[in-house]
């Protein structure tokens, strides 16, 4: 028992006291951080409220302020429109490139005997790719090629509109606009008004 003689009789109390002091120190630190955060939040809220009052007052009473707001709004609208147009152009360019590369690598069959199987394969693959993330362009290429061999492309386009995911369908439509398949151009050509040539009687 001699080796325990140097341990104070109040050892458990000492341990408890030391632990309590440690916890109190940690609590004070957390409390200090929380107090600073609450102070910052209160100051920020006051600043926001003050600006709201200032903004409302000037909007009601200052003609120049209202004019500057309108000018700023018009400028922001123009910038947003410019960004949107640039985004559309970039998307269209990427669609053009993807379509050209795909048709060069995998041409659309022209033989009637091959078209039916090709159509079924492309539709099935397009449906599969549509459900995968990051495969919208590839899915649209499949649907485009299927439409290109279908006898009545307007019918299949209507089916696409009802069954294909909207983003994929939009890409297909853009592909058709960029490079209309032969079946589409033939329909467009047949819908043109016939050219009326003057008769000999009209020329007299």
From TrEMBL:
Membrane topology: Single-pass membrane protein
Localization, UniProt: Mitochondrion outer membrane
InterPro entries: MAS20, Tom20_dom_sf
GO molecular function: mitochondrion targeting sequence binding; protein transmembrane transporter activity
Alphabetical keyword list: Membrane, Mitochondrion, Mitochondrion outer membrane, Protein transport, Transmembrane, Transmembrane helix, Transport
Residue intervals passing through the bilayer: 37-57
A biological-process GO annotation: protein insertion into mitochondrial outer membrane
GO terms for cellular component: mitochondrial outer membrane translocase complex
Position of the signal peptide: none
UniProt family annotation: Belongs to the Tom20 family.
PANTHER family documented for this protein: MITOCHONDRIAL IMPORT RECEPTOR SUBUNIT TOM20 (PTHR12430), TRANSLOCASE OF OUTER MITOCHONDRIAL MEMBRANE 20 (PTHR12430:SF0)
Protein's name in the database: Mitochondrial import receptor subunit TOM20
